[in-house]
From TrEMBL:
InterPro entries: HTH_HxlR, WH-like_DNA-bd_sf, WH_DNA-bd_sf. This is Transcriptional regulator. GO terms for molecular function: DNA binding. Signal peptide: none annotated. Coiled coil: none annotated. It comes from Cryobacterium arcticum. Keywords: DNA-binding, Transcription, Transcription regulation. The keyword Disulfide bond does not apply. Residues 45-144 form the HTH hxlR-type domain. It holds the Pfam family HxlR. The keyword Glycosyltransferase does not apply.
Length: 145
């Protein structure tokens, strides 16, 4: 048996369903978030979790941000992503390529020239990460950009 719960918290509304006495799918509703945003089925939740884990994996977001800041060559990524080892950078670039967020372009010159570019999907993910960066600044008391 499931019932809908609406609770008011400092002017916001929390909505969720009660299953066996516990509230599931709670969220804070506001004017910028539609109800359909949080009406996720099990498959959508699974895909969301996979996406969050990919973006949240150590160094992945920093590598994507470096690409958005203009990095193209391996050495440019290494310079912009401070503290990452060459081995781990190579592994993350390969993973991001496999996920379709970065494309690897090999030019058959002497020596071989390899560049990495964000795909449209990678650029879209970057645009989705920006609000998270803004939110984290607010939580950490850092001034807005």
């Amino acid at each position: 048996m499931s019932q809908t719960v609406n609770r008011s918290v400092e002017g916001s509304v929390l909505k969720g369903s009660v299953l066996n006495g516990s509230v599931a799918n709670d969220r804070v509703a506001n004017d910028s978030v539609s109800d359909s945003t949080f009406a996720l089925d099990e498959e959508e939740c699974r895909r969301f979790q996979i996406s969050v884990e990919l973006a949240g994996r150590k160094w992945s977001a920093a590598i994507l941000m470096a690409g958005a800041r203009g990095a193209r060559r391996f050495s440019e990524y290494r310079a912009l992503v401070e503290g990452i080892s060459d081995r781990l950078l190579a592994a993350r670039l390969k993973e991001l390529e496999q996920e379709g967020l970065i494309e690897r372009d090999v030019q058959p010159t002497t020596p071989v020239s390899i560049s990495y570019n964000l795909t449209p999907s990678g650029l879209q993910l970057i645009s989705l990460l920006h609000p998270l960066v803004t939110w984290s600044r607010t939580r950490q008391g850092v001034g807005a950009p």
